[in-house]
Design brief:
With 130 residues, the protein is mainly β. Helix content is 0%, strand content 42%. A hairpin with a 2-residue loop joins strand 2 (21-26) and strand 3 (29-34).
């Protein structure tokens, strides 16, 4: 994309890129509509990163549900990004790609480190009196 993309409520965040595709991101999903007949060269990727999911606590992308008629793409995602390898795919004005973000809460760090401390023996000595 040409510049950072900020998601806003409503149509304000919809953008068209190079007359090739239209992108709309709304809440828990994004839609890509292709606008003409063409194809992507090998090595062409579409990436959304620095994703920040609203909700209580820290939330991360756990999976993506995809509805598309685009053939031959591959998809990789992490906690806060997704990348679609478009290389070698063909599309036309009826091609679409809809992704729904599936997010989950990231557990807060706990005190498991206490369990990993090396074991120590404490020797108790009793002095004999007498």
């Amino acid at each position: 994309m040409d510049a950072p993309f900020t998601v806003a409520d409503g149509a304000a965040d919809e953008q068209q890129y190079s007359g090739v595709f239209h992108l709309d991101i709304d809440g828990d999903r994004f839609t890509i509509r292709y606008l003409q007949r063409a194809g992507w060269q090998d090595g062409t990727t579409f990436r959304l990163d620095d994703l920040d999911f609203a909700g209580p606590g820290r939330r991360a992308l756990s999976s993506l549900t995809v509805d598309t008629n685009l053939v031959g793409y591959t998809l990789v995602h992490g906690d806060d990004f997704l990348e679609i390898d478009w290389g070698g795919t063909q599309f036309n004005d009826s091609t679409y790609f809809i992704g729904r973000f599936n997010v989950s809460a990231v557990p807060e760090p706990t005190t498991f480190s206490i369990l990993s401390l090396p074991g120590r023996r404490h020797l108790l000595r009793r002095e004999k009196k007498g």
